[in-house]
């Protein structure tokens, strides 16, 4: 009989593999909550025993995007894209548009059974999860409207039909997205479900108060963006160490919330300061700085991505006001924008430490990653 304890076998084994943990969850050996806690425990143990002299942990990336593990994932993904394009174009003269969407949705589910549930390939699972909800929505929507999927005036159509058919259809789509997520457990599925719920809310508002969204378009989408951001922070607060799938779920929600917030706020600013003016572009730069502070606090670079294009236009406009040539304006804009990105990116951890230092001991720090 071996004298080695179970703990010694665990210690000698390879680090916890996400696919094996998920297999244990699927087999009923662990619950999702237990799997997340096991990952946190393992990560804490590795951090405590690591030789920090061998690695500069100040540059550890907590915002790791785990949707590709190797070129095998990419190779399979290329095949999936080609297959779906073949289905789409091959059925154009055979079935109506909603029928093509339905076939593609069914094919997406079938392929996910192989590549997401059985083989657990990261990038193919991501692509199939992203594709399912739009295909399923297009199929259901086509069945409801009995016409081309692109409507000239969807708001008027909803008003005329009082949402009686559309709202149940959206509920069916959300239910399909939930089932897909429950079956394959791909983190980006949470973003698909959230998008469906936001769309349902918009349809209900438009049905109850026709024209309200059109009249308050920017403010309405700002509210949607803030709700999405709040949900992302719920998942982030469950995993401040960024070691479980809650972090991945939050990442995609942040990526969805950012453009809703940025575009809405800038649209509101253009109404106050006037579009294409120095005051407006100065406000753009101020907004970028505010977003940078928020992004640093919550440790999410995704919040800044949507604002970069606006920042580039703002820098370009303000430089052009100095009456330099268009070529020089373009070159200087790129140099300044690139320098800003490099400065924020390379100094991210140092900036976080500086920003969070006054908040030491604050309850806020229990919900965001500790500064490196």
> Which structural class do the helices and strands define?
mainly alpha
Helix content: over 70%
Rounded to an integer in angstroms, the radius of gyration calculated over CA atoms is 24 Å
Average predicted confidence as pLDDT: 80
What order do the helices and strands follow? Answer: HHHHHHHHHHHHHHHH
Protein name: DUF2157 domain-containing protein
Transmembrane segments: 71-91, 97-116, 123-144, 164-181, 188-213, 219-238, 250-273, 279-298, 303-320, 326-348
Keywords: Membrane, Transmembrane, Transmembrane helix
Could you explain how this protein is built, in words?
The protein is mainly α. The chain has a domain at 262-372. 73% of the residues lie in helices and 0% in strands. It is built from 16 helices and no strands. Helix 13 runs antiparallel to helix 14 (302-320) and helix 14 (302-320) runs antiparallel to helix 15 (326-346). The longest helix has 29 residues, at 245-273.
Key attributes of the depicted protein:
372 residues, mainly alpha, DUF2157 domain-containing protein, transmembrane helix, transmembrane
Brief overview:
The chain is mainly alpha-helical. 73% of the residues lie in helices and 0% in strands.
């Amino acid at each position: 009989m071996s004298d080695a304890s179970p703990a010694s076998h665990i210690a000698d084994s390879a680090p916890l593999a996400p696919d094996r943990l998920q297999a244990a969850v699927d087999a009923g050996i662990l619950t999702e909550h237990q799997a997340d806690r096991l990952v946190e425990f393992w990560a804490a143990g590795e951090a405590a025993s690591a030789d920090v002299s061998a690695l500069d942990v100040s540059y550890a990336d907590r915002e790791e995007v785990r949707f590709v593990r190797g070129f095998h994932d990419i190779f399979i993904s290329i095949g999936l894209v080609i297959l779906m394009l073949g289905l789409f174009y091959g059925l154009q003269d055979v079935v109506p548009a909603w029928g093509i969407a339905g076939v593609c949705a069914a094919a997406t589910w079938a392929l996910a059974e192989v590549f997401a549930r059985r083989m657990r390939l990261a990038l193919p699972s991501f692509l199939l999860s992203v594709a399912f909800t739009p295909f399923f929505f297009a199929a259901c929507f086509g069945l409801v409207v009995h016409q081309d999927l692109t409507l000239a005036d969807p708001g008027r159509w909803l008003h005329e039909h009082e949402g009686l058919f559309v709202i149940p259809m959206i509920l069916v789509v959300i239910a399909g997205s939930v089932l897909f997520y429950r079956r394959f457990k791909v983190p980006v599925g949470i973003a698909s479900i959230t998008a469906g719920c936001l769309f349902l809310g918009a349809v209900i508002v438009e049905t109850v108060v026709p024209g309200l969204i059109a009249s308050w378009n920017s403010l309405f989408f700002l509210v949607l963006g803030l709700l999405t951001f709040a949900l992302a922070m719920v998942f982030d607060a469950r995993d401040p160490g960024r070691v479980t799938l809650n972090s991945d779920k939050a990442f995609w929600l942040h990526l969805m919330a950012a453009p809703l917030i940025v575009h809405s706020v800038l649209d509101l600013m253009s109404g106050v300061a006037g579009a294409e003016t120095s005051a407006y572009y100065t406000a753009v730069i101020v907004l970028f700085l505010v977003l940078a502070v928020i992004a640093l606090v919550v440790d999410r670079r995704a919040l800044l991505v949507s604002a970069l294009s606006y920042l580039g236009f703002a820098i370009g406009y303000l430089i052009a006001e100095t009456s330099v040539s268009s070529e020089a304006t373009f070159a200087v804009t790129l140099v300044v924008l690139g320098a800003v990105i490099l400065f924020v990116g390379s100094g991210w951890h140092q900036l976080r430490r500086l920003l969070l230092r006054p908040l030491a001991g604050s309850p806020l720090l229990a919900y965001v990653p500790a500064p490196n």
